């Protein structure tokens, strides 16, 4: 039996999931202790319920994917609209160094996947699928490349395998970031936990904040500001759909969310620096954080966990090794290269989402950590652009290069 939720009921369910996550994180000490994001906690509870319904009564629950995609596009649009050239300069050398760390790991992620696949007697392309295609690329990249692997390279079941692998990454990426950061912070005594009340004060001026920073703090906005900001979001999302249709099958074809992000960057800086029009940072932050929470809740409550149960033993081994390898890389490489300080620990939590999940998971990870230990301005400058823009472009070239070597 199949139950289909429309857009309205999907939003209602997502809000309920967020409330459940809030209760669980605040009542279950281990979740709070290891900084598990509220959408992740609530989403996994919902996914577990749908799994039980499927296994016990063969009942499946499907949610509206269109509204989920719109919230995803709103999230990436907010990243673009927040990308003022002034703030991009603030990232400076640290942004480039962290990007290098991420790029190197993307290459190593494929080396690990392909090597293990060969050692286990599998097609090397399966190792690539359980590498950066799905773990760094996420569900969207898994679906797009899955078709290519099936039709052009004869890898049967590549789409299902990709979705299962991406699901594994999304779950583990959301659960791993907080504990990794907590381990580093406590081991090297980088910060102390802050009082919960400090998260309810007004946020600093917009000029002193980065995208998605201080999500718990009050931001005063007006109806006029909200309407104008919604107009900018609508322009960017409409442009994204238009360019997706125009670029389909062309050499410049890109995922829809990349077009939304690019339009946001261009629109923001034309308005701010070209036309001298004030951009409403507070509205962008509010809409971006709300979209992030709702999208992540929808993504996790829509997970079909039985796909993970169907993974063959060798594939589970590959994914577990990938997870352990990322943890070791963060400890021995990223944390040390980025300065071995509090900002570096928060960046490690973000990289768990970037390379083992999705950009929204990365943002949720660093928000969970900073809500507990205090602000990390550098992390909020670096993670959104690295995860939402640069890494997807790099990953596309890495996948093409890897396929060329294996073909």
UniProtKB/TrEMBL annotation:
It comes from Acinetobacter pragensis. This is Sodium/glutamate symporter. It holds the Pfam family Glt_symporter. One of its GO terms (molecular function) is glutamate:sodium symporter activity. Its main location: membrane. Catalyzes the sodium-dependent transport of glutamate. One of its GO terms (biological process) is L-glutamate transmembrane transport. GO terms for cellular component: plasma membrane. Keywords: Amino-acid transport, Cell inner membrane, Cell membrane, Ion transport, Membrane, Sodium, Sodium transport, Symport, Transmembrane, Transmembrane helix, Transport. PANTHER family: SLR0625 PROTEIN (PTHR36178), SODIUM_GLUTAMATE SYMPORTER (PTHR36178:SF1).
